[in-house]
Structure formats: C-alpha cells, structure tokens
C-alpha cells in the first residue's frame, strides 16, 4: 500500500449521499472511490496537455521551417 496524506475537501451533499450508498452496496471504502476519481481526472487532463503540447510543437516546427526557407 502506498503512503497517503490527509486532505480535506468540500463535496456537494448529493455527492456524499451517492458515495455513501455506493460504498454501502459494494463495501468499497468511500476514500477508494475518491482516489479513483482523482486518478481519472488527472489522467484525462494529462492526455489533454500532451495533445496540446504536440500541436504546439508542430506549429513551432512549421514556423521554424518557413523562416529557414525564407532566409
């Protein structure tokens, strides 16, 4: 098991109720679902940043190539 750090966060009441219900039905701790959700969001945004960086690199290479051709 990896080390963990305590974090406080505010959730909407409906989120808390749904999370409690899911946890009771599955016997998976609420904290595990919260960690899973955070991992999902981090991965999603990491992929977006990689795609954006790739597009910027292509744009940069085009402009660099054009300036070399003109020079």
Explained architecture:
The protein is elongated, with a radius of gyration of 22 Å. It has one domain. By secondary structure, the chain is mainly alpha-helical. The chain is built from two helices and no strands. Helices cover 77% and strands 0% of the residues. The mean pLDDT is 85. The longest helix has 41 residues.
Topology overview:
Layout: H1 13-26, H2 30-70
From the N-terminal CA to the C-terminal CA, the straight-line distance is 58 Å
Oligomer: single chain
Number of strands: 0
Q: Unreliable runs, pLDDT <50, ≥5 residues?
A: none
Major sheet summary line: none
Continuous helix count: 2
Structural class of the helices, strands and pairings?
mainly alpha
| CA-atom Rg in angstroms | 22 Å
Query: What is the ordering of alpha helices and beta strands?
Result: HH
What's the helical proportion of residues?
Answer: over 70%
Shape: elongated
Mean pLDDT across all amino acids: 85
Strand content: under 5%
**Count of domains:** 1
Summarize the structure.
By secondary structure, the protein is mostly helical. It has one domain (13-70). It is built from two helices and no strands.
């Amino acid at each position: 098991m990896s080390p963990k750090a305590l974090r406080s966060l505010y959730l909407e009441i409906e989120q808390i109720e749904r999370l409690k219900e899911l946890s009771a039905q599955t016997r998976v701790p609420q904290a595990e679902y919260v960690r899973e959700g955070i991992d999902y969001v981090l991965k999603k945004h990491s992929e977006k940043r990689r795609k954006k960086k790739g597009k910027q690199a292509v744009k940069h290479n085009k402009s660099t190539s054009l300036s070399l051709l003109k020079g």
